Amino acid sequence: MFEGSWVAIVTPFHRGKIDEKRLRQLVEFHATHGTDGIVPCGTTGESATLTHEEHDRVIELVIEASAGRLRVLAGTGSNNTAEAIRLTKRAKQAGADGALLISPYYNKPTQEGLYRHFRAVAESVDLPLVLYNIASRTAVNIEPETFGRLVRDVPTIVGVKESSGNLEQMSRIMALAGPRLTLLSGDDGLTLPVLAIGGKGVISVIANIVPDLVSQLVRSFSEGRVAEAQELHARLLPLVKALFIETNPIPVKTAMGMLGMLDLELRLPLCEMALANREKLQQALQAFGLTGRASAAPSARGRTGRQAVGTR
To answer: How many alpha carbons fall within 13 Å on the CB side of residue 87?
Structure first.
């Protein structure tokens, strides 16, 4: 169910509030550029700085704008199990196809605590769940053995967004969890390698600006056109590097501002890019042929991409 190219969509802001019109435009952009599904309220969507009401609203808006054309995997994770349950219940009520649950951050639970956390959410909400493993942000790795135990005991846990960067660990997860667990890459630079070890897709940051190419990469590999997938992988790598030159989602929102897809606005503690890194990002976009591409993206409300950055 959760296969193909999924975008970890940004949350556009306007004067401190969610820019609902622009968010709808971004969903429409993905509906017409090959994206298979949308993941709102993830790391890229700045979920950590959304209020509970905003979090629920973003998910509702994405589902409404998708109108059945795109599947929606709602980010509903928390380091508070009760809060994760509440968010997941609301996502189900809104019509989400599933929920993405990040492992609890800051608390540093044991493997037993992780198991009980995810099982509690699953037993409280009848919705397909994809677990998000990213120890670089949470300080805790979900071990392969824990995945095996969860998949064995909890039938609604159906996938993992794996962002450890460790292909050996991913292979062990698949071996222990079996074919019922869908492996999705959580790193754009590892999409092709993850597909090569049996992964079924990616939850992508760069798909925010080049959804057609990310979709084509996944589709080419799945259809046996490996050389084509390799060429796309090599072509995308410099862009991937530029979009992670600073903490995600700072560079991708900056790039989208440059392209006229939104007006750059981040919430503290995230802030604008250092000038030197901004210049490197702009050079990477130019080398990729993306400058002047605003006409292919959602409306910038009459402004050019360059004018849109930092304005509103």
So the answer is: 32
What is the domain partition of the chain in residue ranges? 4-225
Q: Please say if 108 is a catalytic residue.
A: no
Q: What are phi and psi of 75, to 5 degrees?
A: -75, 115
Task: Give the span between the Cα atoms of 18 and 56, in whole angstroms.
Answer: 12
Q: In this structure, what DSSP letter does residue 48 have?
A: G
The single residue of 161, 200, 241, 253 carrying the catalytic annotation is: 161
Domain 4-225 has CATH 3.20.20.70: yes
Residue 301, pLDDT score: 35
Choosing from 115, 132, 241, 253, the catalytic residue is 132
Global confidence as pTM? 0.91
**183, two tokens:** 């492996």
Q: Are 200 and 3 in contact (CB under 8 A)?
A: yes
Q: What is the pLDDT of residues 295-306, one digit of tens each?
A: 334 333 333 232
The pLDDT > 90 percentage for the chain reads: 92
Average pLDDT over residues 209-224: 98
| Omega cis (within 30) before 269 | yes
β-strand pairing of 13-14 with 129-133: unpaired
Report d(CA 289, CA 43) in Å as an integer. 27
On whether the CB atoms of residues 191 and 238 are closer than 8 A, the answer is no
Distance in angstroms (rounded) separating the CA atoms of residues 302 and 201: 35
Q: What is the pLDDT of residue 292?
A: 53
Residue the block writes with tokens 């057609």: 212
Active site residue 161: yes
> In whole angstroms, how far apart are CA 257 and each of 42, 114, 129, 214, 300?
20, 38, 32, 20, 9
